[in-house]
Design goal:
Shape: elongated
Mean pLDDT: 83
Radius of gyration: 43 Å
Number of helices: 49
CATH topology of the largest domain: Alpha-Beta Plaits
CATH architecture of the largest domain: 2-Layer Sandwich
Distance between the termini: 113 Å
Structural class: alpha/beta
CATH class of the largest domain: Alpha Beta
Helix content: 55-70%
């Protein structure tokens, strides 16, 4: 019975190995089933468990005799006990990592078929032949495992192997091709009458266990079918590969295309025949600066350089390029991480030969003046009565370090020892090459980022290979394609690959191979409507990082990949029953996979997140999304972020009803906080989900209310036509007369905004009686809208009539029992009288509103009362009181996260600051206000604050800049009143520049659009200047005086005074009446200046 540990052939009755003492197991060589000790045939598959005499004889004939064959180092390695143990370790690791659940991942599949058993079948009976085949297949399986592959199954006389599952190493396709070559070489060297032929396919497959048994782990999909068809079409000693395999490895191996039609494939599949490893590697491009820097350092001798970079940044290729360019570089071969001093042994034996025994150790010790005890210790060779038995482990390590440095220095004096994958060699050798010991050689190390502690690289010159920036990416692509590339194409590839050189190279080659580039204006660009693929090699590299993690960390990563916003509270609640969660988070941070920016986690590479998510099967994704929804819903309360996470997870788990409710709730909260832009976004998502879920009115009672709120948002941001559409839609979700009337009223309000006053009035009057009879609060609101309507139509008598009706409708019951409605009524009255410029009455209503809101808990309404009360005081000239109220409102707005309110307060404060000469602070506040309005999508607020900014700029002499802002606003409005207002301000800017004719024409147009515009201060000042220019001094003086007498705000008084002074001085009449007026203007100006300071910019602009 063969020992599973050392391979020693023991007698059948042994229970423990006579060579190493390991307990013997009766393992089937064909299916690995463990049989009871007394079985002669496998109970699972029937394979003979004990070789017969004939089998032993045939095996002896087939295997070359030791004397007849040359023992190569690779053959010695196959029989080496340490290597056998390493294969077993790989097998055990794979078993631990086999994922029972299915997943999607890119893999390379090998089908390797043994042929030529015809002659053997004449010498062996079927059972003996089966045993022989099983022995050969087992050795082929060992080659697969050594190269990081997974033996899926044996099918007759062929092996099916997977690379990239259950573990990915990052270069899985290359490993698959090398494995096929090694298997073929093994059969060719060791067996005379049999041959091998292989097929390799690469692509996405579903992998996992199809039952509870571990051995049922397998791969399914078209990739498997292609690999099988390729093997069937291959001839003896041929390796056929598909296009994906070719594209991923063509820079390493030579191929030639072959004309092969694969059976059962409707589409033609490109097939390539493997010729062997490339004799000349592809020229390395993209790291010219680093190569120059490294060569410069190495020229100084005794250099210590470490190159660090993520997989794909070109660390290995850079080291190989340096080795190819310089004659003084020795490039060490990778050794096992589990073999103490393995790298040191490799380097020494490469210089003196492989046959190291006691005699060779003694010869070297004498030749190089070394202690044979410590030199033997490096190679695992002991001497009788060794001094190692009498000294401490620390002393042994210290002396071994000295011996290693000395012998390598003697063998490689003034040379460069280059070690790639330094993070993957044994720790004993690592310590020697990074130690401070005396060395007469240089060291060049290649290290994958995160694989080795950088702080240990003391006195090393560290070169960090970063991903390429945009310009470097563009240059790299141009070098690959040997042509200039357009910026847009370079940007697409850069964003897709994160600037990783390996990913860039693979993606560019993939696009080129599929003819997806075209030339335009001498530059290469990606063709229109081309879907950018995810390169397989890129995915393999990322999966290799994931697969190295323990199962608990991989599970956390999978769940995180399902979240757009990875909220810490959600993740902690999801894994609350799993104590290993915190360790997993710590590990993921240490591995530089995620970072924490409270309260969120972020993937450091988005592509890694995408790949982690794409490995999950659809059913598993839905399961995780649904569980995440439950967690987020449970803890969200009124937290907008958690509500959105719940909505996102409900949508992705196809729980559309729940998703609708979450986005609706998010929209409502955003609306309350006046984050209009976000509210619109969330309501739109809710609407789309409502349609997708086909929800009925009896399933969700909130549909009508939702549509009304959504319509209101659209109304507030100026999307009037869409708002009308939504309000009309809402009428399909209610039979209640009051609700239908409210929807109609909203439509009327929209029509009023569009200037369709007759249509709006008709609807208001149609629903007014219903509200009067059924709902007094809605009746009052409708009366308020009618007031606004008639103010807009310049019919103050009608507006006052409806205002009086509001007053008549407010009774003691409303005042005492329903103060919310009373507050609405007061606000409507205050705004009505404010708009018709009856500021005393407006002050009365807003003042009372302010008092009422102090009693009720609605801080938002108190804020409205505060800002409106401040506006009235401002118009009445009580600017100190107004400023205090505006500042109070600013604090209220901040406390309730009312962005719109905060923006409005800043705008009003800026107006007063401007009038008091604090131009810089005023402009700063106003620009901040504009940014806030733009951020929340409030077009009305944005428009009004930009108008204020333009007016300020004109008043301080920046007329051209102010005019540009006004012209932009003019193009966006349909309101005649607004157009007249804008034309007036543009005319004033032109007058201040001395451009009289165009200014005169604009004033004429403004008056035709809105006759009352002539009462505005800006209109009067512009007109007085025009009259002055026309030498109509009497009219000029009269109009200037009118503007002064009617000016209500400080800024209006200031510019009116300056205008009056200018006109009187220009008239140059030495009359008493003119002197009196001049003195009046100057005194007023002096008082204003003493009160708050007068801007020199305004003085200069109006003089």
């Amino acid at each position: 019975m063969k020992c599973p540990n050392c391979g020693f052939e023991n007698p059948a009755n042994f229970k423990f190995c006579g060579e190493c003492g390991t307990k013997l197991k009766n393992i089937c060589p064909n299916c690995n089933f463990e049989n009871p000790p007394n079985f002669k045939f496998c109970g699972e598959c029937g394979t003979p468990l004990i070789p017969t005499a004939k089998q032993k004889e045939v095996k002896k004939q087939e295997e070359p005799k030791e004397k007849e064959k040359k023992e190569t180092p690779s053959e010695l390695k196959k029989e080496d006990l340490a290597e056998r143990k390493e294969v077993e370790k790989i097998t055990e690791t794979q078993k631990e990592g086999v994922k029972k659940e299915g997943e999607r991942r890119p893999i390379s599949v090998i089908f390797a078929d043994i042929s030529g058993f015809t002659s053997l079948s004449e010498k062996l009976d079927p059972e003996e032949l089966q045993f022989f085949i099983g022995d050969v297949l087992r050795k082929l399986a060992d080659i697969v495992k050594r190269n990081g592959g997974y033996v899926d199954k044996f099918i007759g006389d062929e092996v099916m192997a997977l690379f990239g599952a259950p573990f990915a190493y990052g270069n899985d396709t290359e490993r698959a091709v090398r494995t096929a070559i090694e298997m073929m070489d093994f059969i060719r060297i060791n067996y005379q009458n049999i041959s091998l032929h292989c097929g390799i396919g690469t692509g996405e497959a579903v992998v996992g266990s199809i039952s509870e048994r571990e051995k049922d782990y397998t791969a399914m999909g078209d990739t498997v079918n292609i690999a099988k068809r390729l093997e069937e079409e291959s001839s003896p000693w041929e390796i056929l590969v598909d296009e994906n395999t070719y594209l991923l490895t063509k820079h390493i191996f030579d191929y030639k295309p072959v004309d092969v039609k694969l059976k059962g494939k409707e589409k033609d599949t490109k097939v390539y025949l493997l010729l062997g490893p490339k004799k000349h590697q592809v020229v390395f491009i993209g790291r010219e600066k680093e190569i120059e820097e490294i060569n410069e350092i190495l020229d100084k001798k005794r250099a210590r350089i470490a190159i660090l970079g993520e997989a794909g940044t070109g660390v290995s290729r850079l080291i190989k390029t340096i080795a190819e360019q310089r004659s003084d570089v020795f490039l060490a071969k990778l050794s096992s991480k589990n073999e103490p001093y393995g790298m040191v042994k490799n380097i020494i034996t490469s210089a003196i030969g492989n046959e190291i025994d006691q005699r060779k150790i003694l010869e070297m010790a004498e030749k190089f003046d070394l202690s044979f005890h410590f030199l033997g210790y490096i190679f695992g060779i002991n001497f009788p009565d060794s001094i190692l038995n009498y000294i401490s482990p620390e002393k042994i390590e210290e002396e071994t370090l000295k011996v290693s440095n000395k012998i390598i220095s003697l063998l490689f004096k003034d040379k460069v020892i280059a070690i790639d994958n330094f993070d993957k060699i044994d720790p004993q050798s690592q310590n020697i090459f990074i130690s401070d010991g005396e060395k007469e050689f240089s060291v060049l190390l290649g290290i994958e980022k995160g694989g080795f502690e950088e702080k240990k690289l003391k006195d090393f010159h560290i070169i960090h290979l970063q991903n390429f920036n945009f310009e470097e990416t563009k240059k790299f692509i141009s070098q690959i394609l040997e042509s200039d590339v357009c910026d847009q194409t370079a940007k697409i590839i850069w964003e897709r690959t994160s600037g990783n050189p390996l990913f860039i190279y693979e993606l560019v080659e993939l696009l080129r191979e599929n003819n997806q580039f075209e030339r335009t204006n001498g530059k290469i660009k990606i063709k229109e409507n081309v879907k950018i693929p995810k390169a397989i090699g890129m995915t393999q590299v990322m999966l290799s990082r994931i697969d190295k993690l323990p199962q608990s960390a991989r599970e956390v990563l999978s769940v995180m990949s399902c979240l757009d916003s990875i909220h810490k509270d959600v993740i902690e609640r999801f894994f609350s029953s799993k104590p290993e969660y915190l360790k997993s988070i710590k590990l993921l941070k240490e591995k530089d996979i995620i970072r924490e920016e409270y309260p969120f986690f972020f993937f450091n590479q988005n592509i890694l997140k995408e790949i982690a998510y794409e490995t999950l099967l659809k059913a598993k994704r839905i399961e995780i999304h649904s569980a995440l929804f439950e967690v987020a819903y449970e803890i969200c309360k009124d937290d907008i972020t958690l509500i959105l996470i719940a909505g996102e997870q409900a949508e992705k788990s196809e729980r559309f009803k729940d998703a609708f409710l979450m986005y609706k709730k998010a929209g409502e909260i955003s609306k309350i906080k006046h984050n209009i832009k976000s509210a619109k976004e969330y309501f739109e998502k809710a609407l789309n989900l409502l349609q997708k879920a086909h929800l009925k009115i009896d399933e969700i009672s909130e549909v009508y209310d939702f549509l009304i709120e959504y319509g209101e948002i659209l109304y507030r941001i100026g999307e009037i036509d869409k708002a009308i559409e939504i309000f009309e839609k809402s009428q399909n979700f209610s039979q209640d007369e009051i609700k239908l009337a409210i929807a109609k009223r909203w439509i009327a309000d929209c029509l009023q905004i569009k200037g369709k006053f007759e249509s709006a009035e008709k609807i208001y009057l149609e629903i007014l009686q219903l509200f009067k009879n059924r709902k007094k609060s809605e009746y009052i609101k409708t009366l308020a809208l009618l007031c606004h309507l008639f103010v807009d139509k310049s019919q103050p008598e009608e507006a006052i009539k409806y205002a009086d009706e509001i007053l008549n409708s407010i009774d003691n019951e409303i005042k005492t029992e329903n103060q919310d409605i009373y507050a609405e009524a007061l606000n409507a009255l205050g705004r009505t009288y404010f708009l018709i410029q009856d500021y005393e009455k407006a002050k009365k209503f807003f003042g009372e509103l302010y008092d009422v809101t102090l009693k009720i808990s609605d801080i938002r309404k108190r804020g409205i009362a505060t800002i409106n009360y401040g506006a009235v005081h401002y118009m009445l000239g009580n600017h100190d009181t107004a400023l205090l109220l505006f500042k109070e409102y600013l604090e209220i707005a901040k406390s309730i996260m009312d962005v719109r309110g905060e923006a409005l307060a800043l705008a009003n404060i800026s107006q007063i600051l401007f009038e008091r000469g604090n131009i810089e602070k005023s402009m700063e506040n106003l620009k901040k206000s504009i940014e806030m309005f733009e951020k929340i999508g409030d077009e009305y607020g944005t428009r009004e604050t930009k108008y204020m900014l333009a007016k300020m700029k004109i008043f301080i002499g920046e007329t051209e800049e102010g005019r540009k802002i006004i012209e932009e606003l003019y193009r966006k409005t349909d309101s005649n009143y607004k157009k007249a207002e804008y034309e007036t301000l543009i005319a004033l800017s032109l007058v201040l520049e001395g451009k009289i004719s165009p200014a005169k024409e604009l004033l004429k147009q403004a008056k035709e659009k809105y006759e009352d515009i002539q009462n505005q201060t800006e209109f009067k000042i512009a007109l007085s200047r025009i009259k002055l220019n026309e030498n109509d001094f009497e009219s000029a003086e009269k109009i200037a005086e009118e503007s002064f007498e009617k000016a209500k705000t400080e800024i209006e008084k200031i510019i009116s005074c300056l205008n009056g002074i200018k006109i009187i001085k220009e008239m140059n009449l030495d009359l008493v009446i003119h002197k009196d007026k001049l003195e009046k203007y100057q005194k007023t100006l002096e008082n204003l200046s003493q009160k708050a300071g007068l801007s020199q910019e305004i003085l200069k602009a109006f003089n």
